[in-house]
Amino acid sequence: MLSKKRLNFGFSGYQIPVIPKAPRSARKRRPCIKLDDDQICAFELLAAVAGKLLLESESSASSNADTPTGKDELAGCRDTIKCEQMEDDKALDQGSCVESSNSLTKDWSEVKMESCKDVNADAKSQIKLEGGSPNPDDQRDIRIVEGTQKQLDDDIKHTELTVANVKAPIEKNVNNSALINSDSSVQLPLYRDPVPCASFVKSRNNVKLDDGMKSFYCKRKNTHGNESCRLEVPSKRRKFCDHSFAVAYDQEASSESISNKPEKGIKEDIITSPAVPPKGAVVSASVRNHQKEDPNVKFSIKSFKVPELYIEVPETETIGSLKRTVLFFDKWKSNKQLFFFYAENSNGSSNSYPGKWITGGVVLQGKKVRDDNRTLQQAGISKNGNLDTLGFTLEPSFTKVPLSLSPKADTPASTSYITDQELSRRPPSPILELGPPNALSDPPETKLDKHDESNHELEMSPTNPIDQSAGEAVPDSKALAIVPPVNAEALAVVPVYHKNRHSELSKRRTRRPFSIAEVEVLVEAVEQLGTGRWRDVKMRAFNNVDHRTYVDLKDKWKTLVHTASIAPQQRRGEPVPQELLDRVLAAHAYWSQHQAKQHAKQLAEPLKIVDAQVQNDVAA
DNA sequence: CTTAGGG
DNA sequence: CCCTAAG
Prior knowledge:
The chain has 620 residues and is an alpha+beta fold. 25% of the residues lie in helices and 14% in strands. The protein has helices at residues 42-63, 198-201, 235-250, 252-264, 319-335, 420-424, 454-457, 497-500, 516-529, 534-541, 550-565, 578-601, 609-619, and strands spanning 4-8, 79-83, 96-99, 112-114, 124-129, 143-150, 157-164, 183-187, 230-232, 283-287, 296-303, 308-314, 356-364, 367-368, 390-397, 432-434. The protein is globular, with a radius of gyration of 25 Å. The structure holds a DNA duplex (7 and 7 nucleotides). Keywords: DNA-binding, Nucleus.
């Protein structure tokens, strides 16, 4: 199904900060990794501008908040930044000609853009900030869409950012692996709509192509080995970016996985943009232009953190297959914490979305493609078809929000997931649109598959098809109740991606940090079984999680004990709730004391830590 | 194959 | 996570 996959940097030029392999002690966490000045990704600029847009447009936009469609509200805030590309390789710093008609872009006055060097001489690049007006130009555009919805709960505001619809003139490049576009523009229309999701339904049909849709696609290392695009940002921005970067790399998973890539001999360029969206999540998808005689339909998925992801799916594959593929990558990114969504209200106060997001459905020509069994061809998704009306929807995944993210940190472990109440307070059905704006006409659907939670958090497998279309809308928050996990099977976001790769290319498995939920299950099991029966622990709690061996569990326990023993400030990675760490220590203490006894008794008494502690306390 | 520990 | 000695 997935004939080929490549991960490319949408905005080329940014080089991954290579985290060198070093002794463990030396490469632990890098809370902040400095970028070279010329390595700021264009997406960082977008991220910065997006945040800026959100903030600055707040007043003007909110004054018009009762307008049904936010389409034209911001017509006045159209700005254009043009950066004429330097045809001369050297002239990097001149030529930044910035047109700014309002304050939104003033900070950009120093933006300098160096465009692709090895492209057509008449190439030019421009970044436009545009308010809601479709731009039919045959240029790439990236749009940031913001919508705000107000609910009965006044404090719930939902802001969405979408960077989407990168389009470009059709590239007739013979070399299909090095599509360096010479002309690019970035448009950032800003929409505001008080009606939930309405903004996604209308007014965004500015994607018009003669011949399909093509994403802005720059190979990171082109055939000439030159950098393609570079951006320089003023110091203020740089600071901002650095901060974002620090956030990004606070999750050490990224660095590890990246640093591992070279030695794995993996072909794909897996690139992490340093930018974390300042507000809102950013994702986009588009269908790429196809090469002649290439039987595959090519899709690209964009986000800030993985600016572009590039997959190809044969036309003969089914819609369901496409969904799974997309979801697969969503999960892949999610697993690497490259794909995390936040929701904040416009004031910046946190209304954080602990949940992850999943790819919902496939939308074609405004209608959701419901029959997963149809092939892409049959559904009209063809390399020769109307690819410009294809989109994907993103839907929030409400499952398994660990305790640490829940405001109610005092809930018992078994109920430490989001509650109905919390769920009901969420925006009813936020959807991030992927793809052409006019593709979305279906009312948003927030679907939770009650029967198969694997849809959301489980590893994807052929026997676990993602059939979103068969799901039901869930107006009843009761349906969202999360059943406490019995084991860790459903607790980790583990893309199947890992399975097929590395099989023989490398020995070392990819790092898969334990989720809080997994830790919880592990602790639970160890509490009962003790620290010397890892095989039992495995079978009891991780029986169906084949990537967690009992050695893994033992190792994890080891690190947990260590983590619990050190000061919170010294801990790294996803913070484990103190409650869990306390249990770890208690169980550790208990079992190290009772192990000998256990042998004598021939039977391992399930741990009753509380009792034991009480007794100890009493004794003391 | 499991455990236990060091790397 | 890996590797390995030891049971």
